[in-house]
Design a protein that fits this description.
By secondary structure, the protein is of the alpha+beta class. The protein has a single domain, classed as K homology (KH) domain (GMP Synthetase, Chain A, domain 3). It has three helices and three strands, in the order αββααβ. The protein has a three-stranded mixed sheet with strand order 1-2-3.
Length: about 80
């Protein structure tokens, strides 16, 4: 899942070299943490959180195939 999040995030931001994605597994849940540059936070979140919601929806749809629960966290 981290590769999917990374590809989508790099396509959206102006500084793709500052995008980093980490993945941790906790009690049956995979937590994907997305870090972007401060000036790219608005582009990742979008107006009223629409881009972030869409990103989480795509990841959730992809995780259905693997049968695991995936949570996407966006941090600066």
């Amino acid at each position: 899942m981290s590769e999917l999040v990374e590809v989508i995030a790099k396509a959206l931001v102006t500084k793709p070299d500052e995008v980093s994605v980490s993945e941790e597994k906790e009690a049956g849940t995979t937590v994907v943490t997305l870090r972007v540059a401060a000036e790219d936070m608005g582009k990742i979140i979008g107006k009223q959180g629409r881009i972030a919601k869409a990103l989480r929806t795509v990841v959730k749809a992809a995780s259905v195939k693997t049968g695991e629960k995936v949570v996407v966290e966006i941090v600066q």
